[in-house]
Write a structure and sequence with these properties.
globular
Length: about 180
């Protein structure tokens, strides 16, 4: 693999860090909570499944620099199940898709392009196999759909409990009198 292609795959992979910075800046605590939840689930899943059935759980041979910052050296002996990068980008794009209530094939394709690019880059970097990438997609999709159901409740809770620590503005989209 040429240096230029590695640079492209690393740039796509590092976009997860840029995304998290933007979410923190925009104070989208529901998606940030989802990212934290996905990170915890995939971290412990990788710890637990290390040494399990290699065709599914082991990273491809020659896997290097596969952590969040594309550093860390050789990782071929570790589990890569599920892909945390794919889970993160899936969570973000699925939450945006659900919040914008978009329908139609064109909109879904548009929202899924970053997910496909991330999965492709992780596969080409030899950090994950297709099963691990699909598992990351399922994790991100599931967490996004669960959190979307409770989006207003999470925003209300964060606003009431953490407004002392953060500059959380009033959002007219949240109905404070909503019955639970």
């Amino acid at each position: 693999m040429t240096f230029n292609m590695i640079f492209v795959y690393n740039t796509i992979s590092i976009s997860v860090i840029i995304m998290m910075g933007y979410l923190l800046y925009s104070q989208d605590y529901t998606i940030l909570f989802g990212e934290f939840l996905c990170t915890i689930i995939q971290y412990f899943s990788k710890k637990i499944t290390t040494g399990w059935y290699p065709p599914i759980f082991k990273r491809p041979d020659g896997a290097t620099d596969c952590n969040l910052f594309n550093t860390g050296g050789k990782a071929g002996h570790c589990s890569g199940f599920p892909s945390g990068h794919v889970a993160s980008i899936t969570l973000l794009m699925e939450m945006l898709l659900l919040r914008n209530n978009t329908t139609g094939l064109y909109n879904k394709i548009t929202y899924y392009v970053p997910i496909v690019l991330m999965g492709y880059s992780r596969y080409m970097k030899k950090c994950h196999n297709t099963i691990q990438i699909f598992a990351g997609y399922v994790l991100g999709y599931s967490v996004a759909n669960i959190l979307h159901k409770y989006d207003d409740d999470i925003k209300r809770y964060v606003k009431s409990k953490l407004s002392y620590f953060f500059n959380i503005e009033d959002n007219d989209d949240i109905d404070d009198n909503k019955e639970i």
